[in-house]
């Protein structure tokens, strides 16, 4: 096991009708910037619950943070927050609203010329941030209990992640009832995103970490087991509650303790969103099986464990079990209506060369062995056709 330091200070308030507790959680005397997305919270009653809970507070609103939040939108909120001298941010929505709000929280007190530098430095230049709380409405990203945010810049077709200890939310409210208004695509995307977060932390080098492995396998298996109930569209509270807590656990840092992460599926996936507009999870469902096929020899030990402990594969060599893990994962994605090929989106190999060119230009290398360069990205993308 590798050395690690783990500290997750986010207070989680979980359960039915917990939005009413916001008033106790937001700092007394705070002037709140209330951030949200394209309006789902106004249709499903979450906005009303938030406003009722914060009745006597000073609130400035900023709506319109889009899926895959952009620098161009967030910079307007940074200007508004500075002008209004807000000192608390309450982000209400899915991962995009939470991520955009983390950038806004770090951007308001940022002393440099352009807050985009925060992203370019991957968060290293963040020295402070406005304290922030969240009300999560879409289980998927784990943003509610981690430091990360992924921001897109339309003018340069970029999508990049940053993280800083200053951008942990102070609290996150997770009310599973808020997920009842999600459509099947959003539910499917959330399940796949959470699954791939675990995969990035698990399917790497086997470092003899049985506790972390079993914890990861529990999350994989829970997602596989609850997927039919979640996807049924029924108001099944227990299934939604389990889904919400599972997705949070998938990327709150605990699974990463002492192990080596991969994150190449996400690295390549972000470029696919930037160039082709695919939703985050849609990119992951194409890239993950392709990387596993490309890296089957390096990842065989962990993939075989996945086959055995999650999908119940008992027979065959390590390599055969690893192949079964890939096959079963693709089957699982298809079972919830998630495509796994570029063909499903009409994207040709020629078009994917843009992504290869970007990796070549940046000189980035990805993966647990740091050996996924532009040439490897080309081979991986071909496996996703
Ligand atoms: O904008 P509104 O109107 O709120 O609608 C949203 C949006 O259109 C809607 N929605 C959210 N909650 C809803 C709802 N509709 C009905 N009922 C509800 N309860 O769903 C749509 C998608 O929302 P979005 O926030 O974009 O989805 P998600 O939570 O999947 O977030 C995706 C973003 O998070 C980043 C992704 O790259 C992407 O930009 N990620 C963030 C991570 C992190 N911070 O740790 C890690 C992830 O790997 C990921 O990269
Ligand atoms: Zn993700």
What's the main sheet like? 6 strands, parallel
CA gyration radius, whole angstroms: 20 Å
So how many helices? 15
Tell me the total number of β-strands: 8
Q: What helical percentage do the residues reach?
A: 40-55%
- List low-pLDDT spans: none
- Just name the CATH architecture of the largest domain: Up-down Bundle
The CATH superfamily of the largest domain is known as Dehydroquinate synthase-like - alpha domain
**Number of spatially distinct domains:** 2
Return the CATH topology of the largest domain. Answer: Dehydroquinate synthase-like, alpha domain
Distinct small-molecule ligands in the complex: 5,6-dihydroxy-NADP, zinc ion
Write a concise keyword list for the protein shown above.
alpha/beta; Rossmann fold; Dehydroquinate synthase-like, alpha domain; 2 domains; 15 helices; 8 strands; binds 5,6-dihydroxy-NADP; binds zinc ion
Tell me what you see in this structure.
This protein is of the alpha/beta class and 385 residues long. The protein is 49% helix and 11% strand. It has 15 helices and 8 strands. The protein has a 6-stranded parallel β-sheet with strand order 1-8-5-4-2-3, covered by helices on one side. It has a two-stranded antiparallel sheet with strand order 6-7. Helix 11 packs across helix 12 (296-309) and helix 11 (280-294) packs across helix 15. The mean pLDDT is 98. Bound molecules: 5,6-dihydroxy-NADP (NZQ) and zinc ion. Zinc ion binds next to helix 7.
């Amino acid at each position: 096991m590798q050395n690690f330091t783990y500290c997750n200070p986010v207070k989680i308030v979980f359960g039915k009708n917990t939005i009413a507790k916001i008033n106790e959680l937001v700092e007394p005397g705070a002037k709140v910037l209330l951030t949200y997305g394209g309006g789902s919270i106004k249709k499903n009653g979450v906005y009303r619950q938030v406003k009722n809970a914060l009745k006597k507070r000073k609130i400035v609103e900023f709506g319109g943070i889009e899926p895959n939040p952009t620098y161009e939108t967030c910079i307007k909120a940074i200007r508004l927050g500075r002008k209004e001298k807000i000192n608390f941010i309450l982000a209400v929505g899915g991962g995009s609203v939470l991520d955009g709000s983390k950038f806004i929280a770090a951007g308001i007190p940022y002393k440099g010329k352009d807050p985009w530098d925060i992203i370019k430095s991957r968060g290293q230049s963040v020295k402070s941030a406005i304290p922030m709380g969240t009300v999560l409405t879409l289980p998927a990203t784990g943003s509610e209990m981690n430091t990360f945010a992924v921001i897109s810049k339309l003018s340069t077709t970029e999508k990049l992640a940053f993280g800083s200890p200053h951008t942990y939310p102070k609290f996150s409210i997770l009310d599973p009832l808020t997920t009842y208004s999600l459509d099947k695509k959003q539910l499917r995307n959330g399940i796949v995103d959470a699954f791939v977060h675990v995969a990035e932390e698990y399917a790497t080098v086997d470092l003899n970490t049985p506790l972390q492995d079993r914890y990861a396998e529990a999350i994989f298996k829970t997602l596989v087991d609850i997927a039919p109930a979640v996807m049924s569209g029924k108001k099944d509270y227990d299934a939604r509650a389990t889904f919400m807590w599972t997705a949070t656990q998938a990327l709150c840092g605990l699974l990463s303790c002492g192990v080596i992460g991969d994150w190449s599926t996400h690295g390549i996936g972000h470029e696919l969103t930037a160039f082709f507009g695919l939703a985050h999870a849609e990119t992951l469902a194409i890239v993950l099986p392709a990387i596993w096929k490309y890296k089957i020899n390096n990842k065989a030990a962990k993939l075989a464990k996945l086959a055995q402990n999650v999908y119940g594969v008992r027979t065959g060599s390590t390599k055969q079990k690893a192949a079964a893990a890939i096959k079963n994962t693709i089957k699982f994605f298809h079972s919830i209506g998630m495509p796994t090929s570029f063909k499903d989106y009409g994207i040709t190999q020629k078009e994917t060369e843009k992504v290869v060119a970007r990796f070549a230009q940046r000189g980035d290398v990805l993966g647990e062995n740091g050996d996924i360069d532009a040439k490897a990205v080309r081979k991986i993308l071909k496996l996703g056709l």
